[in-house]
Specification:
With 495 residues, the chain is of the alpha+beta class. The strands form three sheets. The chain has a five-stranded mixed sheet with strand order 9-8-7-10-12. A four-stranded antiparallel sheet has the order 4-5-6-11, with helices on both faces. The chain has a three-stranded antiparallel sheet with strand order 1-2-3. It is built from 17 helices and twelve strands. The longest helix has 32 residues. It is 51% helix and 15% strand. Helix 2 packs antiparallel against helix 3, helix 3 packs across helix 11 and helix 6 runs antiparallel to helix 7.
């Protein structure tokens, strides 16, 4: 899903320390109720919209990794999706709401099955409210127009005249004793009462209109324009929330990285999804049906220290960014150890990968080494102490597996002893000079900008020399083949 390649992961791959294939999962479902506490934190003001995106991304990533630990590496099937969303397709989704925007979860069918997708659309409650207000305003205008036509003075005067005539007849009846005359007067009285009743009916009809009881036909109300304008207004609201949150985001984000390895693996890749949200929001604004695209600004950030960089800028309607993070030497040791100990630990985002392609690369690599590639990976510090000493196995049966050893087994294909200081220097070099200055398009469907080919070739050649001098290969005869197969090994590990 993500087009940006995570720096730390790629570098570790090159040293055969990566032990994770990150696919979507199967035969299980994602528990979306865990998003509710994050929504509560946002609604209370504890976190802003940028932090909200990172935490939701982190939660879903953890859900995927828990299922991967159980051995589920395929995409979700149709029954899984039906269980989560009540059906399959664009019309089957789960919508949650914050006080400012919606949180929509749905599914996407790829080559490996279904995967979970999510985003921050405009609040449906806000749109429903806009529709209700538009209908009320339209109804009020119709009612006011009808009320302006009402005049009850004629009926009021007629009621007064009839009541006066009725009083006269009643008085006359009381004074007369002749039965025939009284009978005639009573007939007149009944007629007067009937007239009063008829006038009251007309008066009640008019009073109903004055009271607002008017049938309204909404056929002339352009409800589509109402929805369009409401969506645009809400997209602008989301944009402003992003504009307000982004200046403080790098300091918070890198600060969370440095709190520990668990935090690093949990929230790493959150910036990628955040940039996707920014790009999607800007695209919705750009493609909105309103004529005057106003009410929002540019997001421009330039945060950089010796160990981190996050730069964001816009070029027309496109958003680009540059990113790197270089852990301290001590933290990097813990990251390497965690990746070997816990194969599901990943600093990349959760995604539906092309499992068939990866399995084909793993099989091809294993075939080159008699069905299984077995290597000893030893990382030593400047004093010769072992930082890691692992037996790594790659084949179609186990995918990728590793175990701690105290000495080299006999049945291995190659042994690598890596100088940690040189390795770290190489990581830092690649992070800053190669990936850290590479503009990345926030739109996943577009390729990132490429630098000058000669320049890129030069720095990669220099970097290759830096790290290869810190690696001892045994037997030496395997070194040329190992270098030739390096790309295949890297692709087999890649997610």
């Amino acid at each position: 899903m993500f087009k940006e390649v995570n720096i730390m992961k790629k570098i570790i791959i090159m040293f055969f320390l990566m032990t994770i294939l990150s696919f979507s999962v199967s035969a299980e479902t994602i528990d979306l109720s865990g998003v509710d506490p994050i929504i509560d934190d946002y609604n209370s003001g504890s976190i802003d919209i940028a932090q909200f995106v990172v935490y939701v991304n982190s939660y879903l990533k953890e859900q995927y990794q828990e299922l991967e630990k159980e051995g589920h590496f395929e995409g979700f099937n149709a029954n899984d999706i039906k269980q989560m969303f009540g059906g399959v397709g664009e019309d089957s989704y789960v919508m949650k709401e914050t006080k400012d925007f919606g949180v929509m979860f749905g599914s996407y069918k790829g080559n490996e099955g279904y995967s979970i997708v999510w985003g921050l659309p405009p609040s449906q409650k806000a749109i429903d409210k806009a529709i209700s207000e538009a209908e009320q305003s339209y109804a009020n205008s119709i009612i006011q127009e009808e009320q302006s036509k009402i005049d009850i003075s004629e009926e009021t005067e007629e009621i007064e005249r009839l009541e006066s005539e009725k009083e006269r007849i009643l008085q006359t009846i009381s004074d007369k004793e002749d039965e025939e005359i009284v009978a005639n007067l009573k007939d007149e009285l009944n007629n007067i009462n009937e007239q009063i009743a008829a006038v009251n009916v007309r008066l009640d009809d008019k009073q109903d209109i004055l009271d607002g009881n008017v049938p309204v036909d909404f056929g002339d109300l352009d409800i589509e324009s109402v929805i369009c304008e409401a969506r645009y207004k809400e997209e602008i609201k989301i944009r402003k929330l992003l504009e307000e949150a982004m200046p403080d985001f790098p300091g918070w984000y890198f600060g969370e990285f440095k709190k520990g390895v668990d935090n690093y693996f949990s929230i790493a890749s959150g910036h990628q999804y955040l940039m996707h949200v920014i790009d999607s929001n800007l695209g919705a604004i750009r493609d909105g049906c309103v004529k005057n695209k106003e009410g929002y600004g540019s997001i421009d950030i330039d945060h950089e220290t010796d160990s981190e960089r996050f730069k964001v800028w816009q070029e027309g309607d496109e958003t680009f960014y540059e990113f790197y993070f270089m852990p301290s030497k001590d933290m990097m040791k813990k990251i390497l150890e965690t990746k070997i100990t816990d194969p599901t630990a990943s600093s990349s985002g959760y995604s539906t990968g092309n499992q068939d392609a990866r399995m084909e690369k793993i099989k091809k690599l294993a075939d080159k080494y008699g069905g299984s590639f077995d290597a000893i990976v030893k990382i030593v510090d400047s004093n010769g102490n072992n930082i890691l000493y692992k037996h790594v196995t790659i084949n179609p049966e186990v995918i990728i597996a590793s175990k701690t050893v105290s000495e080299n087994p006999e049945d291995i294909d190659v042994s690598l002893e890596i100088d940690y200081d040189r390795m770290y220097d190489y990581m830092e070099y690649i992070s800053k000079d190669v990936q850290g200055t590479k503009p990345i398009n926030a739109d996943w469907n577009k390729n990132s900008k490429s630098g000058n080919v000669g320049h890129v070739f030069g720095i990669l050649s220099k970097g290759f020399g830096m790290w290869i001098n810190g690696v001892k290969v045994k037997p030496v005869s395997e070194a040329p083949g190992l270098i030739l197969n390096l790309k295949l090994i890297t692709e087999a590990f890649s997610d």
